[in-house]
Specification:
Layout: E1 3-6, H1 10-14, H2 17-29, E2 33-35, H3 45-49, H4 53-68, E3 74-76, H5 79-92, H6 100-107, E4 110-112, H7 113-120, E5 129-136, H8 140-145, H9 150-157, E6 160-165, H10 180-183, H11 185-202, E7 206-209, H12 212-224, E8 230-233, H13 234-238
Length: 241
């Protein structure tokens, strides 16, 4: 039986455990054994993106050491964390002949969740059911960093009972952008306002994302504005039977 490693990400671990549970359920249903290295922590993206390379390095080294002890593909419910490991790690160690090959080897095992289902397993239909309308927001790192867009869309297209409607200006950032939302709160708030306005245009009660950062940011905006729409990670949709 094939074994995969689940890198859970900080936000899923701390705020959205139901996303992780849905992913485990789906992968097990597909006949995979899912392991969870308990020593895993943050991937190191926040300090790395802030330019704090020295501070990011021990976090990154720890992650590499943890997953070097494991076998199999590494599945991540986040395009931004997957992008960090696949691309940020080699950049961090580009002049380090000891750590660079280790970072590249870990990166070669990494897949964003929908990418893993569609491109590695060849699965596009999980037999999921959802009664109602859905619209999809492609997160920035997933879309532009990992070049993943077809995969989540085809998985959603095969959800029985769901009516998929296009989100206007879907490729625009929601305004989270990790530390961007803290460094530029005014811009972040304006982009969030536009994203929520576009969501309302669809008249969809549910926005689907692949990234918990976007989920938290948009859901928070909807809550503060007392809107009725909800945001959900795609894994939870795909786990609906």
């Amino acid at each position: 039986m094939t074994t995969v490693q689940l890198f859970i990400t900080c936000l899923v671990d701390s705020f959205y455990p139901q996303t992780g549970e849905a992913i485990v359920s789906i992968l097990r249903r597909l006949g995979l054994t899912v392991d969870f290295p308990p020593d895993q922590t943050c991937c190191g993206q926040p300090p790395f993106n802030a330019g704090l390379r020295t501070e990011a390095r021990p976090i990154v080294e720890h992650t590499i050491r943890v997953f070097e002890k494991t076998d199999g593909d590494i599945v991540i419910p986040s395009g931004s964390c997957a992008h960090m490991i696949k691309h940020g790690y080699p950049e961090l160690f580009q002049e380090d002949p000891h750590w660079l090959p280790r970072a590249q080897l870990i990166g070669s095992r990494v897949y964003e969740f929908t990418e893993y289902l569609v491109d590695k397993l060849g699965v596009t239909d999980l037999g999921a059911h959802w009664n109602g309308t859905l619209t999809y927001h492609p997160s920035c790192h997933t879309l532009r960093g990992m070049h993943i867009d077809r995969q989540p869309r085809i998985l959603l297209a095969n959800v029985r009972g769901a009516q998929i409607v296009d989100l206007p200006h879907s490729e625009e950032c929601c305004g989270f952008g990790g530390i961007f939302s803290m460094e530029h709160p005014e811009l972040s708030a304006e982009w969030l306002k536009r994203k929520i306005g576009n969501l309302e245009t669809t008249q969809s009660p549910m926005l689907v994302v692949t990234e918990s950062g976007c989920l938290m940011h948009i859901a928070g905006g909807l809550h503060r504005q007392k809107k009725q729409q909800r945001v959900i990670h795609i894994a939870e949709i795909l786990n609906q039977r």
